[in-house]
Amino acid sequence: MNNKEIARKFNLLGKVMELHDENPFKVRSYTSAYASLRKVSSPLIEMSEEELSEIKGVGKAIVGKIVELRDSGSMVTLQRYVDITPPGILEMLQIRGFGPKKVKVIWNQLNIITPGELLMACQENRLIELKGFGMKTQKALQEQLEFYFASRGQVHYAYVIDEANELLVLLKDRFSQSLVELTGEIRRKMPIVNAIEILTTASEEEMEAFILELAEEIPELLSYKGYAVEITQVEEAYFGMEQFEKSASKEFLEAADIEYEAYEEEESIFLEWDMAFVDPEYRESAMAIDQAKYGMLPDLITNEDMLGVVHNHSTYSDGLHTLKEMSDYTRDNGFQYLVMSDHSKAAFYADGLKEDQVEAQWADIDQINASYDDGFRVYKGIEADILNDGSMDYGNDFLSQFEVVVASIHSQLNMDMEKANRRLIKAIENPHTHILGHMTGRLLLSRAGY
Questions:
Q1: Of the candidates 10, 107, 113, 245, which lies 20 to 30 Å from 353 by C-alpha distance?
Q2: Would you call 181 helix, strand, or coil by DSSP?
């Protein structure tokens, strides 16, 4: 069990205890533990009780529960509350922006115990008369629920790729006389994927049976380490053609206009149609076809092309590592610079920096830069909050002293389009803005863009 998983246990414990009207001081201690534990870099399960007790916000009771998780994999206190809470209520607690207080109102006053029932209640305008709700809150909740249902079963590419490659190695070893490759969304390196997709000439039934043998418990659906697996069996003569069709967008395939026929190797398709090979992750638009035909394909960006790392948070605000740890790590990995951009003062929920704290960080950066003799440099940056009117939360005189200003929106994400555009444009026009941070407002699988 890693640190994030342990921290999430305490976050859930705090939520369910609040849901059941338990002592608010205990609730606060568990939610505070969540905030502290998720920032610890050393493995919690390898730390002694004495070391655990030295973590900010971690007292004797929390140390005991961490030890309990380490030794047994479970937490008796958490399980007691989970057992008396309907599964659908626990699911609601995971929906972004829908906290225990509101969940409790829904549960107690409307007897709603599943997200599906809640969505229907929103559609029927049954929440608007409840205390703490209203039309605006109901509308926002309905949109979040619709997004939640639309994205269920999906997963971040970055989370699943290691397991996908691990499974691929096992399958290639077991079915060594057959062709076995990743295909579909995961081969295209899409940000969000629905499953680990496998293309093979082996028997689909035999491969499914083998994957099931790898599971500790028989899953309801074919999966590997919790991630759905989809297998497509194809004749060897059509392997390349099937890989081509599965590894591109609809727009790309329509522009290519290549009939489905026998190709053992995908590269043969490009050669026969007089095109340069297009990497799967670039097969999105019709433009890629023209570029492939006329030798104009761009070189895709690789890690080696990246000279530095921008938009970083340290322990000065809500980051997990110190400025020195981050700068040393970045330098040791071959980069030339690191741009520090901790939260600014309006982001109080993320320990945003007041002016005197910024100046302390600048002094720290100067000292760190002086310690390097190979040209590596840490830049003095900030992630400045764009306020509701488009202004920043620091004055221009102070902003002018930063080397890099990343301007970002963190609040009032539900403005109408016209007002939101005016807000962004004003921030962009600020002479001290260098970069617009997370400009869509999207959080993959958590929140649609604004």
A1: 10
A2: strand
